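task queued by scheduler; priority normal; single chain, no ligands, no partner chains; default sampling; output format set to structure tokens
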Amino acid sequence: MDKISYSLGLNVAGSFKASGIQELNIEDFMAAVTAVFEGKQPELSAEEVNQILNDYFGKLQQRQADAIKNAGESFLAENAKREGVVTLASGLQYEVINEGAGKKPLASDQVKCHYEGTLINGQVFDSSVQRGEPATFGVNQVIPGWVEALQLMSEGSKWRLFIPYQLAYGERGAGQAIAPFSTLVFEVELLEVI
């Protein structure tokens, strides 16, 4: 039971850390655990617990969102200073790796692309390159940053896109990999306008 108890403690503490909790009053935490396991009357009502935790996690999520948003804004501000980076009125930034000579797609067109998407820390979250198969989709069926960039690219072009959160997945994020307010970086090769 000692090892099971210790393992449960590690599991719970790891979950807390993963959810963004960076500090904890261990004495009060243990008092609550003890009260539950010994069947004692808790010091707080269920309503108080819900209110306290809702307030705490709301503020925690706001701090995390602000940190991600600020990191993205700082990244884009520094990136804009680099030679070869173009910043459009929308906030979208791009860098031409290779300029193609083919036709440019319209919003209503289908395109075939190879791409790799990363967070600003370089962590890959999606890659047709790694899968070894290009993706085909409608130009107007992707995030706004892609919609804008694809219509500026010619077949055969390869660009690096730096997409502010407003032109990516916004305040919602996407799945586990892309947090709300994330600035994204994509390397996109426009293979064909279909």
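post-processing summary
- The helical segments are 2-18, 26-38, 46-79, 128-131, 144-150.
- The longest strand covers residues 110-119.
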